[in-house]
Amino acid sequence: ALLQSDVAWQAYNAASDAKFRELRVIASLYSEVIQLIVRENSDVKELHDLKGRRIAVGEKDSGSAASIIMVLKAAGLKESDYTIVYERFTRGTESLLDGYVDAVYYAGAVPADGITRLAAKTQLRLIGVPADVRSKLQAEHPYFTSEVILAGSYKNQKTDVTTIGFRALFAATERLSANEVENILNAIYDKSATPSSEATPDLKLRMNDALKGVQPEMLHEGARRFFDRRGMTTYSEK
Description:
Number of helices: 8
Distance between the termini: 22 Å
Shape: elongated
Radius of gyration: 19 Å
CATH architecture of the domain at 31-166: 3-Layer(aba) Sandwich
CATH class of the domain at 31-166: Alpha Beta
Number of strands: 8
Low-confidence stretches: 195-201
Largest sheet: 8 strands, mixed
CATH superfamily of the domain at 31-166: Periplasmic binding protein-like II
Mean pLDDT: 89
Structural class: alpha+beta
Helix content: 25-40%
């Protein structure tokens, strides 16, 4: 199954009988990057500038609000300091254009089609998550990973923007045998692939990130064997 890393972490570490201790991670596949956008002419420059502002966060049951609330809390803002607006992302971008909201929050791939389309209509700016906020978040919620939105990902984006995100995890239970997991990983990464110059750039990236955001004790034994043999340290990497 594919699970977002926050969902997997919460399931594995849930209180009392709700814990899903059989859950195991086979590989960390790709990032879902937190992207907070404002209009270029906005006076919102940093996270704390969102005090008193309206933020579009997606639909009410999407879980997006919980993530941005955690981020803003780590930046020193209480929930009463700003207004959450529940709208689909496409509607949220329209609200940003209309001035109904001051910022739009999105978690997903970079570049995001919706942000690319919006950037074609108006000049945008990405709000980063500074190092102290990232460190605080990762200490309290270890499933968060540091991410970089590279310059040029969106129109008029001239600099890299550091933020946070989640990982999409390929997961199973411990009932899946170690040999089966190794076979699965061979099929994903190719039996001969290692994080060396012999691998293609895309494959190297995927292999090198395959442990990113993984809680060490959640890694399947078959995955541990697979990555250890390729010289990859099987511990959680932020």
